[in-house]
């Protein structure tokens, strides 16, 4: 009985992570999504899915906090230099997240028609057509590496898995909806960063990205670093 009670917080976190992943794996990007949007419409579906996702994230966060406090299990001891490497990765992640949110992309919800624009594959999209999800991937893996505990592996690992399966899922959804129109855009871009550039299907033009939005990403990074303790009760600064 005692052992089961100790395990409960971790099992609760596992359940929350499974629900969050489940609604993305088995609904978003699948043919079930196509059926649902056909019956209730794109707008109502997006609203319902957003509510479900937010509820799952809140559950995950609460479960993570409880599991971290009640059943903390250290899997490895991060080396001091890991923290600096992870913080560098998070800086890049912040820039990618900002660029992914401000760049008009055919992969964004409701923006599929952008594939018809011959200049759609520009800016950060020349590097990867999924900058936001690559930012999430870096953020999640960096937190796993520098925390080293079971709860962090489960919590941040969930986002890492979602960021990994998200691009092919989104691409498949766009391919079903847009057909040959999507094929042309996909041929000029890549999910893997620099893939299209290295294979000669696109070229790197940093001037299209500019300096303003990357600087916003840097500002976001420092805001999160120095506000981390206030927001999450844990300092993001290295222990001296």
From TrEMBL:
Its membrane topology: Multi-pass membrane protein
A GO CC term attached to the entry: membrane
- Write down the InterPro entries for this protein, in alphabetical order: NnrU_dom
Keyword rRNA-binding carried by entry: no
Q: What does the UniProt entry say about where the protein is found? A: Membrane
Q: Which residues form the NnrU domain?
A: 13-235
Q: Determine the domain of life of the protein's source.
A: Bacteria
- What are the protein's UniProt keywords? Membrane, Transmembrane, Transmembrane helix
Give TM segment ranges: 12-32, 44-62, 82-102, 132-165, 211-232
Q: What name appears for this protein in its UniProt entry?
A: NnrU family protein, required for expression of nitric oxide and nitrite reductases (Nir and Nor)
Q: Which organism is it from?
A: Candidatus Phaeomarinibacter ectocarpi
